[in-house]
Amino acid sequence: MRSIEQIENIKGKTVLLRVDFNVPIKNGEVEDDFRIRASLPTINFLLEKGAKILLITHLGKGLSASGGMVADLEPVIKRFWEISKLEKDKIEFFDNIRKFPEEEKNDLEFAKKLSKMGDVYVNDAFSVSHREHASVVTLPKLLPSYAGFQLEKEVKNLSRAFHKPEHPFLFILGGAKFSTKIPLIQKYLELADEVFIGGALANDFLKAKGYEVGKSLVDDTNYDIKKVLENKKLILPVDVVVKSGDKFINKKVNEVGKDEIILDIGNETVKNLALLVEKSKFILWNGPLGKYEAGGAKSTKEVLKSVLNSNTQTIIGGGDLVSVFSSLDPRTYKLEPNVFVSTGGGATLDFLANGTLPGIKALG
Ligand code: 3PG
């Protein structure tokens, strides 16, 4: 990847800057502007060099997935001007790129049309770089192309997980979608010293061990996880918080009833995990430990606090975990140089599993 610092003679030229301002919107307002802020250093750098910028982002799902309604960029544009405080004459926004079905079809003619709108392409959208879309993988082949600072930062930091990480190395994996995460689990059972499984993923493991998981969320794919279960590095919850009627009860994993729903990992498990955090030198954490949107955010918050207070080298990733992190008032914690918060969801998982992404390869 060539860095934007290597761009020559950019003064007066137009940069097509692919960003990912796909941020949560509620009642017409941006709820979390983390991804917008993340690209400001690249934008400021390009402006200082005298470039003009055409910002290209998607927001929400495309036409086919959203039933024909593609989100309006207005709230994003409004927030962008509020936080960037830049002069408006050098920056323009392209329409929500997913308004055009050709984007997701990775259409060459569409990419060619886009390429005529600028002189240089910059990718600062790590979190969409796992998508083989026109503005991510084809456009960079049609113009001189560079990586923005945020993309570089993601690659540099996430690569620490598979390039000589410090030990003891603790990998914490939560969230759902067991079948998509199994390659990641297998990879980090080799690279890490301990792999803790929480969230809905843990339900799959507990079920495979023969425990009752009641009405908890499980993945239906019949994947044989016996081998993984035998691995001594694997750590599962010893207790959980269940929703039983209207009540939330802490129970041992062998006490879950047929009508109960597991919402979170339990108190004893949180304590054990905090001890593991304390003795670790490197932590990679993706996905929340409980069903945070249904009252199961407590353990994730507690363990996050232990991690943030520990001074351990840490990488946090995944949209849901980052939302819980944002709810903690992250500005009260000193993040750099030890803690890196990834902007990616699926992209982070793919990068951690494969060591690269289609949008990164396209810059090479
Ligand atoms: C994300 O939110 O992870 C990125 O913006 C990619 O969005 P997508 O999953 O709709 O491609």
From TrEMBL:
Binding site for ATP: 181, 293
InterPro entries attached to this UniProt entry: Phosphoglycerate_kinase, Phosphoglycerate_kinase_CS, Phosphoglycerate_kinase_N, Phosphoglycerate_kinase_sf
EC number: 2.7.2.3
Ligand binding (substrate): 20-22, 58-61
One Pfam family, short name: PGK
Catalytic activity of the protein: (2R)-3-phosphoglycerate + ATP = (2R)-3-phospho-glyceroyl phosphate + ADP
Superkingdom of origin organism: Bacteria
Keyword tags: ATP-binding, Kinase, Nucleotide-binding, Transferase
Molecular-function GO terms, alphabetical: ADP binding; ATP binding; phosphoglycerate kinase activity
Name of the featured protein: Phosphoglycerate kinase
Protein family according to the UniProt entry: Belongs to the phosphoglycerate kinase family.
Gene Ontology cellular component terms for the protein in this record: cytosol
